[in-house]
Amino acid sequence: MDIDNLVASKRSVEQLANKDFSNQKLKDVGGQSWRLMWEAARKYAEKAYEGGAFPVSSRFNRCLLCQQPLSDEAQSRLISFEEFVSSELESKVDESTQKLLFDSKELKQLRFDDLVTLFEQVKPFLNYTGPTVNLDIFEPYSNIQHSIENLECWKKFDVTELTSVEQAIRQAGNTIFLNIKSLKETRENMNAVQIKLRNLEAKKWVVEHPEYIQSIISELSINSTIRTATNTKVFSDLQHSLSDILLTKRYIQTFNDYLHELGAENLSVAIKTRGSKGRTKFRVVLNDTSQSAKINQILSDGQQAIVALAAFLAELEISDWNYPAIFDDPVTSLDQEFELKVAHVLTELSRKRQVIIFTHRLSLAYELQMKAKDMTGFEITGMRQEPVGYCSTESLPYQAQRMDKAVRKYLQELKTAKKRMSENKPEEHDAIVEGLVKKIRTLVENSVETTLLNGVVRRFNREVQTKKLRYIAVISDDDITLFKKWMTTYSFQDHSQPSEAPVNLPSDEVINDDLSEMLDWYDNFTKRQKSVD
To answer: If you average pLDDT over each of 164-168, 295-299, 479-483, which comes out highest?
Structure first.
C-alpha cells in the first residue's frame, strides 16, 4: 500500500467513526481510552454471562457498568460499537503505516527532502507530539547528496579495482618484513666481525712490539722466582709486631675505655688478635679462657650490644675516617642506666664528627636533647608513617617537646580550628580542639618536671640532678597556682564523661588566652632561673 492508499484508508476510518458516533452524548468515543474500557467490558462480560457473543444485547440483559436493563437504543449502540471495533480497516491502516515507515529499501532510495515530506504525511497516523520538522536542517546533507550524485567519476568507479590495491599493499608489507629480518641478521654478523677485527688488531700489535712483550715476561719470571724463594712469614711476623705496638695496644685500651664509659667495665670480655698474610684481625672473646662457650652464649642481647658499640667506637677513635657515624636504635635491649651512658657517649662523639641517630624511644630522644641543648648544629626531627606509605618529618613528638615550642605549635593548630569554624565545618573544628586539649594537658604535666622543676627528677631518668636543686628556689606560689589552673581546665578530656551531662570543650578564646599565658610565664620563669646562675 503506497502513501496515497494509506491516506485514503485513514480517511475512511475517520468517516466511519464520525458516521457511527457523531450523535453520541460523550466525547472521544472510539478513542484510545474508550477502546481500553470496551476491551475490559468484553472480559467482564465473559464472566458475568458465562459465554455468549459479545455484546450481550437482549432486553433481559443489563448494562455491565450501571447494572440497569438495556433499552432498545442502548442495544443498538452496543451493536454499532462492536462493529466499529471489529472492523479490519483500521488494522490494515496500522499495518500499512508500519510497512511504509520501516521498509528500509524504499527509505534508502529517498532524498532528505523526500524523507521530510513522507514524515509529514504519515505523522497523523503516529503518536508524535514533537515539533514540526524543518527541511532547512537537512539542507547541507541534501546538497552533499546531490553533489555526489552529479560526480561522473563516482558513477564510473569500479570497486573491484580495490582487490589489486590490497594485493599490492600485502606484497609491500612482506617485502618490508623480509628487509627487517635481513637487517637483524646483518647486525649480528657485524658484531661477530668486530670481535674478530679487535682480536686481529691485538695480534698485530703483539707482533709489532716483541721487545716490550719480552720485557714483561722477564719481569713476571723474576717476581715468580722471588715469591717462591722468599718466606713471607718473616714479613707477617714483623707486621704483627708493629701492629701490636702501634695499633693493637691502643685499640684494646680504647675499647676498654669505652666499656668503662658505657658502664660495662665489669663484663668479662677481651680483645684477641690473629695475624694472617701480613694482616692483623681482632676478635672479642670471653676473658675467662677456661670457658669454651662463645660470647653470644654467655652475654645477654643488651650486653652484646654494649660490647659491639664499644668495639665500633674504639675503631672510630683510632682511625682517620671523617665519615658520619649512623646509629639505628643503639639502645635496643638496654635498660635505662645503659641508655643514659649511651646518650652521653654519643653526644661527646658528635663533638668530633657528625652523628645521626634513629630511635623510637622518647626517653633517649629527650636525653640527647638535654645533653646537646648547648651545642651548635644539634637538630632533632620526628618522623611518622603516612597512610600512603611514605615517611614525613615533623618536630619532636609533643610528649617530649620544650614548653615554649609546643605552645607556639598549638597556637597554629588553634588558628586552623577557627578557620574550619568560619568555613561552617563545626565537626572538624571540634575534632581539632578536642585533640588540642589533650595535648595541652600532657604538655602541662610534662612541664612540671622539665620546666618547673628544671629536670631535677624525671620519669625518664633514675638520677636526681642535685646540681639543679638551686633552681627550685625561684618557684613561687603563683607558679603553682597557674599549673593547678591549667591542669584543672584541660584534664577533663582524659576522664569519661557522663552522657546526660557532658562537659563542653573550652572555647577558642579561653584556649588562646591560656596558651598566651603559658608563653608569658615560660619567658618570665626562665629569666628567673638564669638569675640564679
So the answer is: 479-483
Is the Cβ–Cβ distance between 32 and 123 less than 8 Å?
no
How do strand 382-385 and strand 355-358 relate by DSSP bridges? unpaired
Question: What is the C-alpha separation between 392 and 385, in angstroms, rounded?
Answer: 7
CA atoms within 13 A on the CB side of 100: 21
The position carrying cell 561552617 is: 424
Quote the cell numbers at residue 359.
Answer: 630511635
User: Closest Cα to residue 283, out of 242, 318, 255, 316?
Assistant: 255
Could you tell me the pLDDT band of residue 460, with boundaries at 50, 70 and 90? low
| Spatial separation of the C-alpha atoms in residues 339 and 331, rounded to whole Å | 6
DSSP 47-106: HHTTS-SSS--STTSB-TTT-PBPPHHHHHHHHHHHHHHH-SHHHHHHHHHHHHHH-HHH
Residue 513: the pLDDT is 94
Residue 484 has a pLDDT of 92
Query: Residue 17 burial (CB < 10 Å; 0-12/13-18/19+)?
Result: middle
Question: What nine digits make up the cell of 437?
Answer: 586539649
Q: Which residues pair with 269 in a beta bridge?
A: 286
- The reported pLDDT for the residue numbered 530 is 86
Cell of 291: 670457658
CA distances from 97 to 13, 14, 87, 131 (A): 14, 16, 17, 20
Q: Are 3 and 122 in contact (CB under 8 A)?
A: yes
Q: Answer whether residue 376 shows pLDDT above 60.
A: yes
CA 45 and chain centroid, separation: 71
Residue 482 has pLDDT above 90, yes or no: yes
d(CA 522, CA 405): 11
| Spatial separation of the C-alpha atoms in residues 159 and 305, rounded to whole Å | 88
Average pLDDT, the chain: 75
